[in-house]
Design brief:
Elements lengths: L2 H12 L3 E6 L5 E4 L1 E3 L4 E7 L3 H6 L4 E8 L4 E12 L2 H7 L2 H4 L11 E15 L3 H14 L7 E6 L1
Antiparallel strand pairs: 1-2, 1-5, 3-4, 4-7, 5-6, 6-7, 7-8
Length: 156
């Protein structure tokens, strides 16, 4: 794995807003993430009564799937989730998108901060649809496998 893959992964994750988060006891659901490169983690805001929040109370294994056509990123990210009580971190992450889900906004008693500590990510970085179409056409002419972009596993 090249260091450029890890850097490019973080750059593209920053510009991607949504993925599907699942744990060993909670089904996959769409969630917005907040990336923390220095801590190798992703943050999520959810409601306390969700299966995700309940699962995070036990430090469950988690998988986060990200696909972004605009950012040309496809990733399966593995780690563990934990429920966190950190008012300063919640203030830092709070925004209009999170506020839309809670009747009393940031002060709602149902707000739960979840941290996903990353273990590894399998990542595919592509050049986008035009690049992909070019590679398919080239492969059909040259009879060689198309170059679909960079692929690798990042360990955190």
């Amino acid at each position: 794995m090249s260091t450029s893959l890890k850097k490019e992964f973080w750059d593209r994750v920053d510009d991607t807003r949504i993925g599907m988060l699942a744990t060993d006891t909670a089904r996959a659901i769409p969630m917005s993430h907040y990336a923390d490169h220095d801590a190798n983690c992703l943050w999520f805001i959810t409601a306390r009564d969700t299966d995700l929040a309940k699962s995070a109370q036990t430090g469950a294994a988690a998988e986060y799937l990200v696909t972004s056509k605009d950012e040309h990123l496809y990733a399966r990210i593995d780690g563990t989730v934990q429920a966190v009580t950190d008012p300063a971190k919640l203030d830092e992450l709070w925004n209009a998108f999170a506020a839309a889900w809670f009747k009393d906004g940031r002060k709602d008693d149902d707000v739960q901060l979840v941290r996903m500590d990353l273990k590894q990510a399998e990542v595919w970085l592509t050049g986008g649809s035009l690049s992909f179409l070019y590679e398919i056409a080239k492969a059909n002419v040259t009879k060689q496998v198309p170059d679909a972009g960079e692929h690798g596993t990042i360990r955190f």
